[in-house]
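Protein modeling request. Please complete all fields; requests missing the sequence field cannot be processed.
Requester role: graduate student
Desired output: 3D structure, token encoding
Chains: 1
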Amino acid sequence: MPDLATALLVAKFYDLHRGKDLLPPAQALRQAQNWLRVTSAQGFRDYVRTAVADGRLTKTDSQLLENAIGNARKGVATRVDSASLSVSETDRPFAHPYFWGGFTLTGL
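Delivered output (108 residues):
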């Protein structure tokens, strides 16, 4: 599951930094971290579908991410403080800093 969170964080970072917004790297990373923290499982699914429609992801990538998002909802409570994380479709599976707090920007 940390691999999924990392993949989503990096994808969103590049969307913000290299996409239509062209944010500076530090700002793009901060916004990507916040997005990972506040987005629901359904929100991630919507993001993946849009990325496929825009040609940024293949359908194979989409299927892998869809499966991983479903598994994240089921497994997150057993991997991180289960008292603070729920596994409902509308909850935020990557809200815990474990998934986004360790990323820093260097060398850009």
